[in-house]
Specification:
The complex is a heterodimer of chains A (about 90) and B (about 375).
Chain A lengths: L1 E3 L13 E3 L5 H11 L18 E5 L2 E3 L11 E6 L5
Parallel strand pairs in A: 1-5
Antiparallel strand pairs in A: 1-2, 3-4, 3-5
Chain B lengths: L2 E8 L2 E7 L6 E7 L4 E7 L7 E7 L3 E7 L7 E2 L20 E7 L8 E6 L2 E5 L7 E2 L1 H4 L4 H5 L11 E7 L7 E6 L2 E5 L7 E2 L19 E6 L7 E5 L2 E6 L4 E4 L12 E6 L7 E5 L17 E4 L7 E3 L17 E3 L7 E4 L5 E4 L7 E4 L5 E9 L1
The chains are: A alpha+beta (about 90), B mainly beta (about 375).
Chain lengths: ~90, ~375
């Protein structure tokens, strides 16, 4: 399925902002992304499997809070690096 | 020909100041990791090639980067420092940032240690590619007690810093906890003991085993058992036979006091050390006393101190020098360097007798380290 990434993650995908990955859940999708682009999962998900404070996931433009959420093959996943800092 | 590098970690990236051994002409390289916090960058003195940087991006969390070509290319750690996954529904800890990097002993090529916030200790045996927790500390039953609750932590969170490997015993490791105190392990991190006797603390019990706030602990690289610390509550030298700290800051001028963050040891003289005092009065402004920045040097192991401010602002100098932001090189005469929260790097090539500003307009400086690059 299509995964849209924010600019802070582009260094992991050779600059691509739109990539493909597979998974029946968001957790599986992130694992597949990490196989394709090593290291990218840890920049979104911490060691306790929590979503990092300023990362947000939208599935078909709906905000999801858990990586256990189920995905369908034609879903679109949007990753947003929310505003923060100064 | 060997070159001198000064690695300047800042709130918005890493900068490398370079010079030949005469230190007359300087270059600046960077920023590396633009926009990201670089808490510490250290070149491995064992191979003169492996450079590690503790990096945190606001959105992406922490990691460690490594370079073997002095920053032309960087490789991210495959397994950055991370706490163990909690069991079941228990709430586990997450690393906020890597704060301190220390190469292992001279004969242990590839071994590095990392200290984090919240206070955690991590080790790598493959030159920073993969990190694992030192569970003797991270899972120690008293660790929570030692580091206290988050509300008592320093502004950037509870931190494990001042990682020192005893140059005479690779199994012997010192750490500083802010807050918590100085602790040591003599078995490579498997077991730990507090090392805070004689050190003033926040608790009413003057002999409290923990609850202290070391700001910077330095173990001498050449002389056995020579240990100094700049603490939240003064400057101390460890009397190793008694395992007791002696407050050498009592010999500082009373109108200056002995509060500050960094402490630098002379690599060839165990009785010479530098501090950079900060105002620890009233509400703890943590700026040079009276707006007049100065280093203080002792040449007799803390029995006396002398002010060194030639070339520094004579007035209205209100920057802070953080605990990792002062260092020396190993040349002769010794060069001293410090970075400020105002983005300046100052240097002295005559062991502190006079100072000059090497660099202006950098971001807030978090750390300064030096290296001789083959």
């Amino acid at each position: 399925m299509k995964v849209l990434l924010p600019t802070p993650l582009a260094s992991y995908t050779a600059g691509k902002r739109e990539v493909e990955a597979e998974g029946a859940t968001l957790a599986q999708l992130l694992a597949d992304l990490d196989r394709r682009y090593p290291g990218i999962r840890f920049r979104m998900i911490d060691e306790q499997d929590g979503v990092r404070p300023h990362m947000r996931f939208f599935v078909n433009r709906v905000l999801v809070r858990s990586i256990a959420v189920a995905l369908a093959p034609d879903d679109e996943v949007l990753v947003v690096a929310a505003l923060s800092g100064g | 020909m060997t070159r001198l590098a000064v690695l300047v970690g800042t709130r918005k990236g890493l900068f490398v100041l370079g010079a030949d051994r005469k230190r007359r002409s300087w270059t600046i390289d960077g920023p590396h990791f633009l926009g990201q916090v670089v808490n510490h960058a250290v070149l491995d003195p064992r191979d003169g090639r492996t450079l590690l940087a503790a990096v945190k991006a606001g959105h992406l969390g922490h990691t460690v980067f490594r370079s073997e070509d002095f920053g032309r290319t960087w490789e991210e750690s495959q397994t950055p420092p991370a706490f163990a996954k909690a069991d079941g529904n228990a709430k586990g800890e997450t690393v906020s940032h890597v704060f301190w990097l220390t190469p292992g002993a001279a004969k242990e090529a590839g071994r590095w240690y990392a200290g984090t916030s919240p206070a955690g200790l991590f080790v790598s045996d493959d030159a920073g590619r993969n990190w694992s927790g030192v569970e003797g500390f991270n899972a120690h039953p008293d660790r929570r007690k030692w580091i206290g609750p988050p509300e008592d932590a320093p502004p950037d969170g509870n931190t494990l810093h001042s990682l020192n490997v005893d140059p005479f015993d690779p199994d012997h490791i010192y750490i500083g906890l802010s807050a918590g105190g100085v602790f040591e392990s003599r078995d490579r991190g498997a077991t730990w003991s507090p090392l805070n006797k004689g050190c003033a603390g926040f608790f009413p019990d003057p002999e409290a085993a923990y609850g202290h706030d070391p700001h910077c602990v330095r173990v001498h690289p050449k002389f056995r058992d020579v240990v100094y610390q700049q603490n939240h509550c003064g400057i101390y030298r460890l009397e190793r036979k008694a395992d007791r700290w002696h407050r050498i800051g009592d010999n500082m001028p009373k109108d200056i006091g002995d509060i500050g963050f960094p402490l630098v040891l002379h690599p060839r003289d165990p009785e010479t050390a530098w501090v950079f005092p900060m105002d620890g009065g009233t509400v703890w402004p943590r700026v040079p006393i009276g707006g007049k920045p100065a280093a203080y040097v002792t040449r007799d192991a803390g029995k006396s101190w002398r002010r060194q401010d030639k070339g520094l602002p004579a007035a209205q100098g209100w920057f802070t020098v953080k605990r990792q932001a002062m260092a020396c090189d190993t040349l002769d005469p010794l060069g001293l360097y410090f970075g400020t929260t105002g983005g300046e790097v100052w240097t002295s090539f005559d062991e502190g007798e006079s100072w000059q500003c090497l660099c202006l307009h950098l971001p807030h400086v978090y750390s300064v380290e030096t290296a001789l690059v083959p």
